[in-house]
Fold:
Amino acid sequence: MIFHEVSIIEKLGAEIRYNTVIGKDITIEDLASDGYKAVFLGMGAPESSKMRCEGEDKGYEGFMPGVNYLAESARGRKVLTGKKVVVIGGGNVAMDCVRTSKRFGFEEVRLLYRRTEAEMPADAHEIREAREEGVIFDFLVTPVGIVSEGNRVTGIECIRMALGEPDDSGRRRPVPQKGSEFVIDCDAVIPAVGQVCRVDMAFPNGNGLVSAWKTLVADGTTFQTNEGHIFGGGDCVTGPRTLIAALTAGKHAARYIDDYLNGGECRPKDADLLETVATSPELFKEKKSFCYPGFTEKEEGSVLDPTVRINGFDEVEGPLSPSRARIEAERCLRCYRLLMAAV
Structure:
């Protein structure tokens, strides 16, 4: 599918250069010298965050970061073997890793998370469906070291946690409990504790374009940086988010790049500013209350039985029936109430 889409883009006249790293094989200054009057950076957040766990950099067989694991799985490759696998993390990538592992036939799939289920950032339905598929959840647990024999993973040493005072994220900080260390036997370990950007590779000197988090600093509406000809969007700007958010950033940035090329400047459009308010995450929090009555719950489609879906990678969610789709469409078409309540 991806190669088909690439061929369409090439037929439209785009040139795609593979195996080329910005900041290594070519610089942004080189692009300007070649006559490119605008540059869009969308390199994402391709590297896994570290667990700060002893042994994670030893290159043990049976240890693989979640992003790499999913990339190999998408290519149809089962790169980890054994009967027991442990995944560390609480987001949707961690959910993808445990559910993929079930489909690859691991007999025991265990997920470790340092806080409680209430603090997990993963979607509620992902957690629910992973549990239905037989994934074991261990909360208030964090790894401290990889256990190995020779050059192969044989287990993971952990320590139990308790929740303390809230940290900068607003969630209660997990505090290690001395003397509570224990070992979980396993054949594979998959850390999925977050992703990091490497935008700094494109700007060795920073130039005010790179934040302390190594993300690109760009306007949230126009996607333009303080270097007028440089634009950026997606995970390299926001940090790890969804595919849809990255696609949206690319689409909007293209319009502002066109404005820049034709007029030399970018000014936020009223419609985009309104959309920013209308799509504010605050408006869609599950427990958010509004002054207008009459909201209806989201219609849920059919889902394959857990005993069936773990046997392969077929689509899990089915479509809505015509009658339920009509109800859902009516519900969604009333979302203007959210904006009215916010304003």
Notes: The mean pLDDT is 88. The chain is about 30% helix and 20% strand.
